[in-house]
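Next comes the chain:
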Amino acid sequence: MTSGLLPKLLDCIHAASLDVTRWPDALGAIADALGARSVGLAGLSQKPSDCWGVMVGVDAATVDAYTGYYHARNPAWLASVNAPVGVIQTDGMVVPSHEFEKTEFYNDFLLPQGVTTMASAVLKVESARQTVLTVQGARAFENRQLDLMRRIAPHLMRALDVNTRLALATHAPVATLAHFELTHQAALFVDRDGDVLDANGPARALLLDGLPLDRCGVSRVFDADDSERLRAAIRRCEAKPTTTESVVLRRAGRSALTALVTSIAVDLPWRLPSWPTALVLIEARPERGNDFPFGFTAAEAALAREMLRGHGVAAAAQRLGVARSTTRTHLARLFQKTHTHSQAELVLALLGKTGDVR
C-alpha cells in the first residue's frame, strides 16, 4: 500500500458519511485502490424487492439486472447468505472455481463485463438481509487487497450508520416523535412490512400490551383484516412519497380506531431493512354505544348491531372475536334492557328505536 493511501480513502468515506451524494467518489477511490473493475454498496436479500445497489464502474441497467435476476443465481451469495458482519471473502472461498465457472451467473453476467472474480465485505446484517461492499475484478484478489478491505470495512459501517442517523434526524415526522410523547396521540413508526420500529407512550398503552417492539408487527397488534388494510396503506404510501391515507381499524369486539398513515420519504439512495416507511397516528373513533336509547354498553351495542344484521349468537361471537358464553351474557342483558324475550322481539325493538341497521 502506497504511503498516504489509507488516509485518503478514509477521508473519502468520511465525506460520504456526511453527504450521500459523495458515495460515488468514495467507491471510485476504493476501486482505484483495489485495482477493481467495479465497486459498490449493495443490500442483498432473498426477496428481489429488498435488494438495492449503488455502484461505480457499471451502468444502471447492469445493477438492475443483478438485483432483479442474477442475484438469486449468484452461487457465491447463496453460499454465504448467513455470513456475519465483518466477514471478508472471495467467491473462491465459498464456491469451488470449477463449479463457479459453469454457472449462468458467471458466464452470462460476469464475463461480459470482463469480470472473473468477486470479493465482498459484510457491513450490516438485519432481518435476514445483508448490506455489503462488493468488489469485482479481472484477476484473483491478493492478500494485500483483502487486507485493505478489512481495514476500511469498520469505517464503511460507521459511514452508513451516520448517513441513516442524519437522514432521520433531519426528517420532520421522525423528529416529532418526542413531541407525541407530550400528547395523547398514539404514534407508531413502521417499516415496509408493518413491523413497529418505535412507538410513543400512548401507542404502547393502547396497542402493544407490554410486548417488546422487536416482537410487534401489525399482525400482532391488530386482527388479520385490519392488519392487511394497514399494510396495504403502508405499501401505497411507500410507492407514492408524501401520501397520507386514513384507515379504519374495526377491531372486532372493541372500539374502532382511525389510523392516519403518512409516508416517510428520506433522501438516501437506498433503504436499510429497519428503515421507517410510515408514521401511523392512531385515534379512537367516536363510540356508538349511545346510538341505542337503552343504556347499552359498547359491547352490548356491538352485539345489537350484529343482531340487526341478521347474525345469530354463534356468528356474532365469531365476528366480534368473543366467546359464545360472553355473547349469551350480553344477549341476556339486551333482553333485560329492551324488555324482550327472543331475538325476533329484540330486533323489532331495535328497529323501532333506530330505524336502520348501523
User: Anything to note?
Assistant: The first strand starts at residue 38 and ends at 44.
